[in-house]
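Subject: sequence -> structure tokens, single chain

Hey, anyone have a minute? Need the predicted structure for the following. Not urgent.
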Amino acid sequence: MPPELPDTQEVAGEQEWMARALALAAQGRGLTSPNPMVGAVLVRDGRVVGEGFHTYDGVRHAEIVALEAAGRNARGATLYVNLEPCCHTGRTGPCARALISAGIPRVVAAMPDPNPAVSGRGFKELRAAGICVDCSCTSGSSEEARRLNEAFAWWVRRHRPLVTLKTGMTLDGSLVLPKSRNGHQTRWITSEISRAEVQRMRHASDAIMTGIGTIIADDPLLTDRTSLPRRRALLRVILDSRLRLRPTSRIVGSARGDLLVFTCASPSSLRAKQLSAHGLEICRVRPRGGRPDLAAVLDELGRREILSVLLEAGPLLNQAALQADLVQKVRLFYAPMLVGLGGSLPGLRKRKLAGSLPIRELSHLRTEVFGPDFAVEGYLRDVYRNR
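Reply:
Had a minute. Here:
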């Protein structure tokens, strides 16, 4: 017999239940990588009977957590989940089979698995067992679901992390403010509210990357200061072709196995050994133009199961990443001020502006306000396409 259709009350709450599944999935931010974030909600007779979300260390997938919470009430319930249930055995058994055994008559999913090798197979197995699979009624949630796991989607297809270029600037494009007469920086460009959002971006990322120029100029820590739980420490990545990193810098002093330096210099040199003694790792990659090859850097990070990289750098590294077409997403924070320094978009040095980069339009633009500032976000690549 075909599965029973949901009652009118449940259909009316489709978006509500899927929004709940997405909210649950987001609770796994910082806790699931290199797995995707998944939330699941079981609804029976118009009420939630079980729900859950996945964490890597928790091992169990969201659907299994929800089934266990529902117990016998799972039979006859509709499952709302932001990602196609798996049908293969990895660290856990297949969720599709567990749903079939539990007597779930209907599954509402926001998106298929982004892995081309398995996409659609979970849905196929559920349908073969007589379960109604519905992806159309939550079309409004599909974009949010894709954004939630865009880094996983890119990594699983390209074996490299998704790179987001982030910077803060004035309205006339300056990345720095004039220094005071005593030579000190006068103030931050962006507001405290914007900087708190940047911390949330760091928390959502597996790694943060910058160049040695930024380290020498600013002596930053580059840490996740949200105090939110995360499964593994934010990996701090520095590109330093000649190992100019000072052992006395704050970032070296705070290294606890979470600092990785890519260089063209020999890792067996005296300077490399001195730095390694402070608890950081030095990785030699092939040079390109006298600097670490960015493609090789991202390949290595991908091998280490780094799904997402937040690029917080200066003009030189920004320009190199854009020229190499290695940036998938940008997020630019603008402060309402003019400093009269000229300036340009991040990554474009004024003296090399002409002909240095092709004109490329951003897609899926979004703007958000953060106190007195505003941010513009867009994509340079479709993270769900293989090419």
